[in-house]
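#struct-help
A.M.: can someone run this one for me? Single chain, 239 residues.
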Amino acid sequence: MIFSIIMALTNGLRVNLANLSLLHAPFVLGLISGGAIIYWFTGASTQAVTTGAYRAVEFIKANIRLEGVEKASVSDSKKVVQICTQYAQKGMFNIFLAVFFVTLAFAFVEPFFFIGYLISIAVFGLYQAIFMANAGGAWDNAKKIVETELKQKGTALHDATVVGDTVGDPFKDTSSVAMNPIIKFTTLFGLLAVELAVHLTTERGARLTNELAVLFFAISMYFVWRSFYGMRITSQKAA
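D.P.: on it. Structure tokens below:
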């Protein structure tokens, strides 16, 4: 799909080939921006999982007795599931809108900037997903080894391996697996957005597309802010 955009912008690899070079500043900036978006996405998705898990633990401590043989009520169990679902939806809502508007913004900035951006998120996203899946699995497996093979549950060693749940699970079950749909959506939607941007530039001039790029980027930064600061544990607790 990226190559199809390149073919469209270069008229079948006959014109503007110099703009696909590292000597073309917007193309290089696009390569940098794609990596930045990947790292923001992984951090924001992990933040949403962390906050949701914290809220669920808060509710369990306040309302459910973990000691003894008495089981938790069905309503309390449903409330825990509701809390986790609520924060998952809230986190992904912010992330999706940020990705949507940043894709529009970058497509309207400059077509070859956007080509560099798409190449970058594909490459960075692939290796970041592999890293997070492997690292998260290693952390989680280390915790399970301490619990099952070493029989050290409840010890200081077990406390040290809790990172397998707090970081490992979001790494391997959330951020890494969610990278694929983000890359696919950005590429597919970007194909339409860059064609619209080129058409508007031809019909109305570059000023309109630049103004729209600034507007879309400002909206995306608002949702980027919400994905981090709007999901912080401390700010939610104060509220």
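A.M.: thanks! Residues 2-10+26-238 form one domain.
D.P.: also worth noting: The mean pLDDT is 88.
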